[in-house]
Each structure stands twice: as C-alpha cells, then as structure tokens.
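Open question from group meeting: does this chain pack into something compact, or does most of it stay loose? Before anyone orders reagents, we agreed to write out a predicted structure and look at it together. Recording both the input and the output here so the notebook holds the full record.
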Amino acid sequence: MTLYWLKYKGTLFPIHQGDCLLGRSPECPVVLASERDFWSRAEDRDRLQAHLVNAGEVKVVTLAGATHYAHLDRADKGRQALIDAVKAFLLRSGPAPAPRRGE
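Structure tokens returned:
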C-alpha cells in the first residue's frame, strides 16, 4: 500500500492510498438525513445516493425526529442521534493515524 504524507502547519499526517483525510475509506460514504427536515427533501437524498456511483456502498442514516438544524437542537430532538451517527462513522475503521512532527 502506498503511503503519502500530508504536511499541514509543520505536522506530517500519514495518508494511505484510498484514505480520505480523516483516515477513513471513501468507498463507503454515509448520507445523514433528518426525518423532519423542511429543506433537504427525500428526493435530494435519493439523487445524491444515485450519483455516488464510485462508492462501494452508500449508507443512509435517517435521524428520527430531527429537523434541518439537528446540530443545534436538544439531544432528544435529534442532536444526540446526529452525534451518534457521526461517531459511528468515524470509529468504524478504527482511529485515524497519529500525526508526527515533520520538517
């Protein structure tokens, strides 16, 4: 596997071929959809899913009871569901590689 180094503000971050910048594989994106979203429609979500033709799998997670502003809402109104979905996505491949100080 090819290893690349991304340098940002004097710190080198290891990037393997096929990794995205968070150290996760882009082959399985997650589409988050709020159940009560007044702005993003179900057709938009379906169209996005259809356009991700190079993804091995597209996982759609619907946040029950959440609105378009789930990130700003109370935990019981969708915010905790959003946080849980993002954490599950980020942690499914293990932790991101640790950065190292570079030249």
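Observations to bring back to the group:
The chain is about 20% helix and 25% strand.
The chain has one domain: 3-101.
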